[in-house]
Specification:
- By secondary structure, the protein is an alpha+beta fold.
- The protein has one domain: Sulfite Oxidase, Chain A, domain 2 (Alpha-Beta Complex).
- Helix content is about 15%, strand content about 20%.
- The protein has 8 helices and 13 strands.
- The strands form 2 sheets. Strands 1, 4, 5, 8, 9, 10, 12 and 13 form an 8-stranded mixed sheet that branches. A 5-stranded mixed sheet has the order 3-2-11-6-7.
- A hairpin with a 2-residue loop joins strand 8 and strand 9.
- The radius of gyration is 19 Å and the shape is globular.
- The two termini are about 30 Å apart.
- It binds ligand MTE.
- Ligand MTE binds next to loops.
- The site of ligand MTE has 17 residues, from loops.
Length: about 325
C-alpha cells in the first residue's frame, strides 16, 4: 500500500506480503496460525488458537484465510474477546435483542453470494463476492467500532480496503455518493417480517469518505470468516463513524449523484444524521456521547473510557470535513 503521508494507522511496505488468496468456507483452509493475525494481534492470536478460549473462533471457523497482509492498524489496542464480539450484536434483521443475531442467524445462507453494482460507474452488473475479494489484497486491521448506545469493541477485521473494490467498477465523475443495501429475504431474516425499520437496511457514504483508506470491506474477523451475526459474508467497517453506518450482509452497491436515503436518517433524522461521525462534542438528543463502555465490562468493572473525536482517527479523516459545522452535519 502506497500512502505518502504516513499516519499512525498506516502499514509499512515491509509489512505487505504477496497478493492474498481468499478461501471460502467450503475450500481447504490452510492454517497460518497467529502469523495471519496483524502485528498487534500476535499475542492475542496465540491465545486465540487455544480451543475453548473466549478469544478464539470455534474450530469450525478457524483459519479461513491464507496470506493475510500484516498491518500495524490498532496495534496498541487490546482486542475484545471473540465471544463478546459475536454474542452482543446489532443486526435487526434477526431481532432487536443483543443476543438475537447470534441465536437467530444460523439459517442465513452466505454462499454463493452476489453483489449487484448499479448507477454511475463504467462497470455495473451482478458480481460474485468471492471473485471480487479474490482479486484484492486481503489485510487484517484492528479497528475500534463504537456504537451509538455507547459501547465499543476492538476487533481484528479481515478484508480489503473499500476503495480498492469500488475503483474496480470505475465510478464516473457523477458518482458523488455510494449507496449500500443489505439482503432482503424475510425467510432467512425473520426480523424483516416485523415492523420497525423500513427494509432493506440501507446506508450511504460520500464518495471521498468511501475512498478514504480507513474505510474497509470486511469478510472476516479474528482470522476467520465473519460469523453470520457480524454481517457475513461481507460488511462495511467504518471505524470513525458510529456503528450503524457499518452495514452488514451487503448485496447492492449503487453509485449515485445525490445523497442517498439511509435507514436511520429516514427513521429518525433528528437523532441519526447521514455523517454519523463519532463526536463526543455533539450529544445524541437522548444521551451524552462523551463516554463509552469498552466491552467486556460489567457492574464491578464498567470499563468506561472517554470517547475520542472521530473515534481516535482524527488524523486520518478530519480533513474530509474541513469547514463543515459538525453540529449541523452530525
Ligand atoms: N447492518 C444491518 N444490515 N442491519 C443492522 O441492524 N446494525 C448496525 C450495523 N450494521 C445493522 C447493520 C448497528 S446499529 C451496529 S452498532 C453495528 O452493525 C453492529 O455491528 P456488530 O454487531 O458487528 O458489533
Amino acid at each position: 500500500m502506497l500512502i505518502l503521508n504516513k499516519k499512525a494507522s498506516d502499514c509499512s511496505e515491509s509489512e505487505v506480503t504477496d497478493k492474498s488468496i481468499y478461501l471460502n468456507r467450503r475450500q481447504f483452509m490452510k492454517v497460518t496460525g497467529g502469523i495471519a493475525l496483524g502485528v498487534g494481534g500476535i499475542g492475542h492470536a496465540a491465545a486465540a488458537l487455544q480451543e475453548g478460549n473466549p478469544l478464539s473462533p470455534p474450530s469450525s471457523l478457524k483459519s479461513s484465510f491464507d496470506n493475510i497482509v500484516e498491518t500495524s492498524f490498532g496495534k496498541d489496542d487490546k482486542l475484545s474477546p471473540y465471544d463478546v464480539a459475536t454474542s452482543y450484536n446489532n443486526f435487526y434483521e434477526f431481532g432487536y435483542g443483543k443476543s438475537d443475531p447470534k441465536e437467530r442467524s444460523s439459517q442465513l445462507k452466505t454462499t454463493p453470494w452476489t453483489i449487484t453494482v448499479e448507477g454511475e460507474a463504467a462497470k455495473t452488473g451482478v458480481f460474485d463476492l468471492d471473485g471480487i475479494i479474490k482479486e484484492s489484497m486481503l489485510e487484517e486491521r484492528i479497528y475500534r467500532l463504537r456504537c451509538v448506545e455507547a459501547w465499543s469493541m476492538v476487533i481484528p477485521w479481515v478484508g480489503v480496503s473499500l476503495a480498492t473494490v469500488l475503483k474496480r467498477f470505475e465510478p464516473t465523475s457523477k458518482a458523488k455518493y455510494v449507496y449500500f443495501e443489505t439482503l432482503y429475504d424475510p425467510k432467512q431474516m425473520p426480523g424483516q417480517l416485523g415492523s420497525g425499520l423500513d427494509w432493506p437496511y440501507r446506508e450511504g457514504l460520500r464518495i471521498d469518505e468511501a475512498m478514504n483508506p480507513l474505510a474497509f470491506l470486511a469478510v472476516g474477523m479474528y482470522g476467520s470468516i465473519l460469523p453470520n451475526q457480524n454481517g457475513a459474508p461481507v460488511r462495511l467497517v467504518l471505524p470513525w463513524k458510529y456503528g450503524f453506518k457499518s452495514i452488514k450482509s451487503i448485496v447492492k452497491i449503487r453509485f449515485v449523484e445525490t445523497m442517498p436515503e439511509t435507514t436511520w436518517s429516514m427513521l429518525a433524522p433528528n437523532e441519526y444524521g447521514f455523517y454519523a461521525n463519532v463526536n463526543p462534542n455533539v450529544d445524541h438528543p437522548r444521551w451524552s456521547q462523551q463516554q463509552e463502555r469498552r466491552l467486556p465490562g460489567g457492574v464491578l468493572f464498567p470499563n468506561v473510557i472517554e470517547t475520542k473525536m472521530f473515534n481516535g482517527y482524527e488524523e486520518e479523516v478530519a480533513s474530509l470535513y474541513a469547514g463543515m459545522d459538525l453540529k449541523r452535519f452530525y
